[in-house]
Write a structure and sequence with these properties.
With 185 residues, the protein is an alpha/beta fold. Helices cover 34% and strands 11% of the residues.
């Protein structure tokens, strides 16, 4: 992702520097290889948790949104407009949100680090914050994004992670034009 290149099947993940935020946490991840591999890349000893599996998009699995929209425009419209719709024959957004609410409610006390898919993270946020299901499509989760939820059971809070400068921030700061800095507040 950092290279902004299309991935190749043989690509390896670059090692991640030690992450003190993972120390002492229970690790869980979606059962798919992309979650297991990301957990290993993070240095997290995680067990596969079926509750963190990706949303099942039924017969649309593996297709682009453009391909599905060309073949089933009414189905896509229904899926985008109604969180309860599952025209693909898989799991609806409302079903995914419900599944994540149950998953959060069953967590043991203590710190848990979960590695899963953007759709699952979006659903977990909607469930944890007790937002309407329609809010699901208003949450953007980038690849390798980080979300922190604090609390337990049915009482959750969203904690926004602290901003950390990029690893090469000192080099970048020298590249900023002095004219730009003069116009800054």
């Amino acid at each position: 992702m950092r290279a902004a290149a299309f991935p190749s099947p043989g690509d390896l993940l670059e090692p991640l520097p030690d992450s003190p935020g993972l120390a002492g946490a229970e690790g869980r991840c979606g059962p798919e290889e992309r979650c297991l591999g990301t957990a290993r890349w993070l240095g997290l000893a995680a067990v596969a948790d079926p509750g963190l599996r990706d949303c099942d998009h039924g017969r649309w699995r593996g297709l682009s949104l453009a391909e599905v929209a060309a073949a089933e425009p009414e189905g896509v419209r229904a899926w985008l407009a109604d969180p309860g719709a599952a025209p693909h024959g898989g799991e609806s957004v409302a079903g995914l949100i419900g599944r994540m609410g149950e998953w959060l409610g069953a967590l043991p006390s203590g710190r848990v680090v979960a590695v899963t898919h953007p759709a699952v993270v979006r659903a977990a946020l909607v469930a944890a914050l007790e937002l309407p299901a329609e809010a699901y499509r208003r949450v953007d989760v980038p690849p390798l994004g980080r979300v922190e939820l604090t609390g337990f059971g049915d009482r959750w809070n969203l904690r926004l992670p602290r901003w950390e400068p990029p690893r090469d921030a000192s080099r970048r700061s020298r590249e900023i034009s002095p004219d730009f800095l003069e116009g800054s507040p």
